[in-house]
Design brief:
By secondary structure, the chain is an alpha+beta fold. Helix content is 27%, strand content 33%. The strands form 3 sheets. Strands 1, 2, 3, 4, 7, 10, 11, 12 and 13 form a 9-stranded mixed β-sheet that branches. The chain has a two-stranded antiparallel ribbon with strand order 5-6.
């Protein structure tokens, strides 16, 4: 494709690597496009943030297609994930260390299966305090890292499917189909509480956004290589 193609608007499906932020992916692709085509600037944006510890489908829009970002963000998303039972972290994932441990002796496979039913449908969810949501002009994670208490309001979300795919001791693999605004980290935390124990997220991969599938995505490295072919 030419510089004009990217400026007129393209949808790029990228498989976000572990430890990269979504903004790092955007910035890297923008820089590569500018260098390859010797252009001063080009609009590049992503449709839905993935945490650094998450991998998977990231929709990148260029040029005039960035006007469609809100449309993509609003679409149903699918994730595969792993929860670890019996312990929690302040961030609800592996970004922070375990702060509490809980008994798991009472937890059976049947109880785990039954508990998933509580989370299917329209529910209220509290976002993690370690998140990029803004309150009073600051990101929530800024309050969290400063050790400051902050009031977080619950949000209405919808979970269409919540399926257990594997149980290996305390590691529980799930597939989740959910609405925009759902925090899988919060789902892990709330799931642990519903089991009268604790849980945190240890792995997360976004597999679908609407009709877009990670199977059709390419890595950042492969995209850069394609620009130079």
């Amino acid at each position: 494709m030419t510089a004009e193609d990217y400026q007129s608007g393209q949808i790029l499906l990228i498989d976000k690597p572990l430890h990269w932020t979504s903004f790092q992916v955007v910035n890297k692709l923008r820089w590569e496009l500018k260098q390859t085509f010797k252009i001063k600037n080009i609009k590049v944006g992503h449709a839905g943030t993935l945490d650094p510890l998450a991998t998977g489908l990231l929709i990148i829009c260029t040029g005039k297609m960035t006007k469609q970002i809100d449309t993509f963000q609003a679409q149903i998303k699918e994730y595969t994930c792993t929860f670890v039972l019996g312990s929690t972290t302040p961030s609800y994932d592996l970004e922070t260390d375990i702060n509490e441990t809980f008994s798991t002796e009472h937890i059976t496979n049947k109880l785990i299966e039954e508990t998933t039913k509580q989370f299917i449908g329209d529910i209220q969810q509290y976002p993690p305090v370690f998140s990029a949501i803004k309150k009073d002009g600051k990101r929530l994670y800024e309050f969290a890292r400063a050790g400051e208490d902050v009031e977080i309001k619950a949000r209405s979300i919808s979970i269409q499917e919540f399926e257990i795919t594997n149980i290996d001791a305390l590691n529980i693999d799930f597939r989740v189909v959910c609405s925009k605004g759902t925090y899988i980290r919060s789902l892990a935390h709330d799931f642990g509480k519903a089991l009268h124990s604790g849980a945190h997220l240890s792995a997360l991969r976004r597999t679908k956004i609407g009709d877009f599938n990670v199977a059709d995505a390419i890595t950042v490295v492969d995209f850069i290589t394609s620009l130079n072919d």
